[in-house]
Amino acid sequence: MMHQNINVALIGNPNVGKTSVFNQLTGLNQQVGNYPGITVEKKIGFCKLPNNIKANILDLPGTYSLNASSMDESVVIELLLNKNDKLYPDVAVVVTDVENLKRNLLLYTQIKDLEIPTILVINMADRMESKGITLDIPYLEEKLKTKIALVSSRKGHGIEALKDLIVSYKTITHEPCLNSSVIDPEYFKNLQEAFPQQLVYKLWLVITQDVNFSNLDRNEIRSAFTKSHSELKRLQQKETIKRYQFINDVLKAGLKIDVSTATDFRAKLDNVLTHKFWGYFIFLAILFVIFQSIFSWSTIPMDFIDGTFAALSSWAAEELPSGILTDLLSQGIIPGIGGVIIFIPQIAFLFLFISILEESGYMSRVVFLMDKIMRRFGLSGKSVVPLISGTACAIPAIMATRNIENWKERLITILVTPFTTCSARLPVYAIIIALVIPNERVFGVLNMQGLSLMLLYLLGFGTAILSAYILNKILKLENKTYFVVEMPSYKLPLFKNVGINVVEKTKAFVVGAGKIILAISIILWFLASYGPGKDFNEAETIVKERFANTTLDETQFENEIASQKLENSYIGLMGRAIEPAIKPLGYDWKIGIAIISSFAAREVFVGTLATIYSVGNSDNEDTIKNKMAAEVHPETGEKVFNFASGISLMLFYAFAMQCASTLAITKKETNSWKWPVMQLVFMSIFAYLTALIAYQILK
Q1: Does the annotation flag 607 for ligand binding?
Q2: Is residue 336 marked as binding?
Q3: 422 and 388 share a domain?
Q4: Which residues are involved in binding GTP (predicted)?
């Protein structure tokens, strides 16, 4: 024990505070990855326990029972069935909500039947008094055959007691609290006799669930104990009834609720927040406040970061020995990375607000509210979860569609989710809005830049809904679905949870984008610093001949040489080749290169321009925004980033599928290249035509 880590599996229904308990146990000592071979998210944390014992805490996906209806739930069952899995738990910690104990205990009784040492955590204990709830803990421990930790993850109460229970997990009985053979005594007896070395409830799960059990051939078990689908469903229903009868009997004596001391504030608040008129108005008002704040609050830190990287680039150019490596660092790597780092404040604020909405319980109300609208477009409220999640990133949002049982509804949601404005688009929107939209207030309250950002988010969501309507009419697939959403209790967001969520997601964005930016910055710097032929290699002579009759000071002369080299470098020649296709949209060849490079990831756009504008630039102290603002067309002398081209560019990024990772996850989730290719082609053409029309009208 002293030399081995304990494997602890955190299991529970959605919205019981399981992740809050996970954060209390592990803090920031967490790793996020995927289960082998699938894209279901896996969160593992590390925790120090009493007696110098360490624990690996595995936060399993939320599940209502071991009767799986989604891939997330299948992951939970397969882990609990297979002892050979390196993450197989030494102890299971089932987290429940004190207000929904009856429903939560169904999952607990099933896990106990697997004979894993199981600790019951009753969370949100701080709400017991206000809800008039009292619990007889010794009685519950006796009847449920476990040890109970009464905790408040929001306040951190009971966490140390939980750690003590985890350390002493070997003292907890393996005995089930309900004999599963009551489902069908004869059938279960024959099943046990056929496989005497196996737990009968594990065999039952292998028969009824689409999961793998490494110790036995699933087909062998099913063929020997075959039953019709309808008969298996009947037995599953009987199991659920028997378990709830047991739970009801236990809670009659173990849980008391005095309604005279409870308050019913939640119902009154729900009547307002889900109102058929005021509900939508409040939701839009919240969105408005969020996007106003993103621009207003982030200005100071963004300006500081922008100026710092410009100064750092200048310092590297002046203080380090001259040569290729210094040029690469000052003109390629530093400006490129700065093009991503500058947007950390805005992205962090976005994740902050999303986390607060989720933690408070309001996001579930939004799902319920939007169901009425979504049904008109062939979807349900369940599709809102991926669409809203898409404001962070389309990849986990598409993975979240696994909770949608109906294939047609799920497919449509996968295909339209990339229209939702993700955090990778935020850097593009932010820099372009800052360049072409005045930083002014309307009626003394409405910030034009914040309003523009909100409209872009609404445009993305609206386009996704409209596309869903069209696809619902085009795709001839059966569509029958039922919508059920759980309304969790309102609670004040836990600062620790929100903080961890913001740090982890912002870090994931920066690290993920940073790797791509670093690689692309080096490639772009090389392509922009070297070129073939006379026009590049003899740039100084050509400039002297061109301006033989014009007096240029030293700075102007150096800038003309840099411009001559850039236009005739490898990247300049590539840009010139594609310029005829993008010129009608109001873009020059430099923007064209940025668009092409950002097909790897949208956030690369700003970093690419920062690198291109820095190559050969004598004024390294100028910020990215100032360089973009000063850029002009050499033929016309007009600004490259004007109102018409800015709107065109934002519309292009609003609709274009510029994310290789999203295409890959679409392929994985649909098991076909047909759908991601259709996504790429349609969204690219639609983005091009929309940007073209906008520029031609506004120019």
Answers
A1: no
A2: no
A3: yes
A4: 12-19, 37-41, 59-62, 123-126
61 labeled binding residue: yes
How many whole angstroms from its chain centre is CA 597?
23
539 and 428 in a common domain:
no
The pTM score is 0.57
Reported as a pLDDT band with limits 50, 70 and 90, residue 71 is low
| Residue 404 assigned as binding residue | no
Is residue 120 within 8 A of residue 146, CB to CB? The reply is yes
In this structure, are 579 and 467 located in the same domain?
no
Do residues 441 and 424 both lie within one domain? Answer: yes
Helix (H, G, I), strand (E, B) or coil at 437: coil
R_g of the chain computed on alpha carbons: 30
Split at pLDDT 50, 70, 90, the class of 226 is: low
Helix, strand, or coil here: 286? helix
Distance CA 11, CA 289 (A): 36
Instruction: Quote the pLDDT of residue 39.
Output: 43
Task: Report yes or no: 477 and 425 within 8 Å, Cβ to Cβ.
Answer: no
Strand partners, 97: 123
CA dihedral 503, 506, 507, 513 (to 10 degrees): 180
What is the per-residue burial (b if ≥16 Cβ within 10 Å, else e) of 75-86?
A: bbbbbbbbeeee
| 6 DSSP β-pair partners | 55
Distance of alpha carbon 358 from alpha carbon 550, whole angstroms: 64
> Was 13 annotated as part of a binding site?
yes
Q: Does 338 show up as a binding residue in the annotation?
A: no
Is there a binding annotation on residue 16?
Answer: yes
Establish whether 98 is an annotated binding residue. Answer: no
Which pLDDT tens digit goes with each residue over 595-634?
877 776 676 777 677 767 766 555 555 677 787 888 887 7
**Annotated binding residue 59:** yes
Instruction: Quote the number of domains for the chain.
Output: 4
Residue 12 annotated in ligand binding? yes
Statement: residue 36 has pLDDT above 50: no
Q: Which amino acid is at 328?
A: L
Is 84 assigned to a binding site? no
In the chain, the amino acid numbered 314 is: S
The reply to whether 123 sits in an annotated binding site is: yes
Q: Is 533 annotated as a binding residue?
A: no
Mean pLDDT, the chain, as a whole number? Answer: 79
User: Is 15 annotated among the ligand-binding residues?
Assistant: yes
The whole domain housing 225 covers 180-258
